[in-house]
Amino acid sequence: MAKKKRLLLYGSYGFTGNLIAEAVSGSGIDAILSGRDEKKLKAQAEKLNLPYIKASLHSAVELDSALSDAELVLHCAGPFIHTWKPMAEACLRNNCHYLDITGEIEVFEALKGLDASFKEKNLMAMPGTGFDVVPTDCMSAYLKQNMPDATHLELAFRGLGGGVSRGTAKTMVENFGEGSVIRKNGKLKKVSSGSITRTIPFTEKPQNGVAIPWGDLSTAFYTTGIDNIIVYVALPDKVVSKMKWMKWFNPVLRLGWVKRFAKNRIEKRPAGPTDEQRRTGSSVIWGEVRNHLGEIKHAEIATKEGYQLTADISLIIAKKVMNGDFKPGFSTPASCYGHELIFELGGSEWLKK
Question: Is the CATH number of domain 6-129+308-337 3.40.640.10?
């Protein structure tokens, strides 16, 4: 018996999950909210007029019950390094496609390892359906298309007018003391925080960028096959300077009590960017490829504020999957839907191509 075309939105009451839930409400999509906190779920479900089902990631029985009548899971409960595995395994048991909004390299690599398992069931596993990593993945695919022999890829982004949600901040805390990462000769390589910088020639104004462990170090590699990748975020010079000297505190930053203290402080912050910040904010994505001859190509895209982009593009991808538009196995956004995917989102435009 075929399953209903139903979307299970897990972690629906988190900051980004709630943005997606609000977009789903009244959209005509058959969706059900889910998470471990029944009180929060009930309040959200009543507000949005959507059904809900409580399910803990620590209970296979509860997850199987939640997924039994779903075709697709959009997983929004992070940090994903702790949550991806039980949900992915539940998807395989219950014949559900798996989407999530992670930007964590370890999660991309782990799900790539389940490629054969998802293919065998004719299911897709696509992590990173949001700002991490859709616009940068589309940029990577575009640049590779325009320089097929590229050997090096560098990406950079900056956000204008937004902020960081509690969930994103907690994920950052998980990586305290771990430094940064690049991909060199096909392998992921750890480097010290703040040790790799460059001036990013954004069209509006050049700005300094620092290498960070962004998800494209995994996804762009699988999308393009380019062996050497660095991803930068544009930051003020004083922040980059702090990153460089903080490496001396890495052993302390890795301590459990330090991370717990930081997370407790995060709980006192606003949940995320305000409605006004998301509406008026924007993001700029820059990319560069070069080949063995030293030839270089650049491109630049302007798009929505990161959290709003995540909510909107995740729903676009979910609709595609529910309409049968997917590739079995592990997939990245651009390898499945092409570099044009980002332009299905209103507010995206080329600044340079």
Answer: no
